[in-house]
Write a structure and sequence with these properties.
Oligomer: single chain
Shape: rod-shaped
Number of helices: 4
Number of strands: 0
CATH architecture of the domain at 45-102: Orthogonal Bundle
Organism: Cardamine amara subsp. amara
InterPro entries: 60S_ribosomal_eL19_sf (IPR035970), Ribosomal_eL19 (IPR039547), Ribosomal_eL19_dom (IPR000196), Ribosomal_L19e_C (IPR057260)
Pfam family, one: Ribosomal_L19e_C
Protein name: Large ribosomal subunit protein eL19z
Largest sheet: none
Length: about 120
């Protein structure tokens, strides 16, 4: 009886090496675990999107920042709220400084009497 079990185990190992017995039916438990992870990721994405929408409605960020950040959230760039908040502040600061740099400095024009 022992030799039969051993031979069956050898045969099963041989087929597993050839990637047999690895279909969906053999992986049902793993799929359940992965689905739980996916639910957690969906929850995080929903939270980040809601936070972004709230910032935009409160006029804390501009529409350009909102669009860029939304696409990054959708692309799973941010893993948590802290990293997300830091990037929002950094991105909005960069836009503010770049718009200030584009404005010409205020130089007084000479008046007619001074020429």
């Amino acid at each position: 009886m022992v030799s039969l079990k051993c031979s069956l185990a050898k045969r099963k190992n041989k087929t597993n090496r050839r990637d047999r017995h690895s279909g969906y039916g053999s992986r049902k438990y793993i799929m359940e675990v992965l689905l739980r992870r996916l639910k957690v990721l969906e929850r995080i994405l929903k939270l980040l999107k809601g936070l972004l929408k709230k910032y935009w409605q409160d006029k804390k960020i501009e529409k350009q920042v909102y669009n860029d950040m939304y696409m990054k959230v959708k692309g799973n760039v941010y893993k948590n709220k802290r990293v997300f908040m830091e990037s929002i502040h950094k991105f909005s600061r960069e836009i503010k400084f770049s718009s200030l740099a584009k404005e010409p400095e205020a130089t007084p024009e000479p008046q007619q009497g001074e020429l």
